[in-house]
Amino acid sequence: MTGPAVHRYGPDPDQHAELWLPADGGTPRGVVVVVHGGFWRARYDLSLGRPPAASLVAHGWAAWNLEYRRERGAAATLADVAAGVDALADVPGLAALHAEGRPVVVLGHSAGGHLAAWVAGARRLPDGGTTGTARVAVTGVVSQAGVLDLATAHVQGLGGGAVADFLGRPPRRDDEPVDPMAEAPLAVPVRCVHGVADDVVPPAQSEAYVARAGRLGGDAALVAVPGGHMDLVDPRTAAWDRTLGLLEGLAGLS
């Protein structure tokens, strides 16, 4: 692999992404946007996405390891994720892949799973607006132990009140535009990978999302894997191997 090269998509220090490319210089299978977790909190950053990104390029993908503003308000975080995905259109090699119809899959872990599902949808903001028409079409989502039901996550106190911290208050009905559970199903396939021993984000988050999306006619599937919360982003684990297989399936490679 080569890189990563840092690309900025805005003036704030957190508005950047790392581009990882296969070392052989060949055409990548497609692009995987890696969205790290950490309950939307500033002390967690894109370093969490580097081990997955390194594994992805070793398996022939281009990886776009995305950073975004945290603890600046939900609207800022969401706008950054949308802008960060759309910035792929400004990177010459990746823009060419997109123009060729190669897959652009968003892979998000924990709170990153929430952001991955959100950016593949209508991209609505808490104030009722949107981030505008997407410049890059997301072709699939892999949510790893995603926080996909904000209302329930708040009731359960996940992340020590992380949902209320993210929204700036407890969730309410008009937060549905930024809650993946309320927006399900998406127009693209969603694969929810969850460790059966996860004690940080309960597997019920993924189970409930997939059940709702399927009931409403969406293409969503639950994949239960061994291990806990962080095993999903550890390239040494069977859980990560399963994630690689899901990415290949979404890209039509298996």
TrEMBL record:
This is Acetyl esterase/lipase. Residues 19-208 form the BD-FAE-like domain. It holds the Pfam family BD-FAE. It comes from the Bacteria. One of its GO terms (molecular function) is hydrolase activity. InterPro entries: AB_hydrolase_fold, BD-FAE-like_dom, GDXG_lipolytic_enzyme. Keywords: Hydrolase.
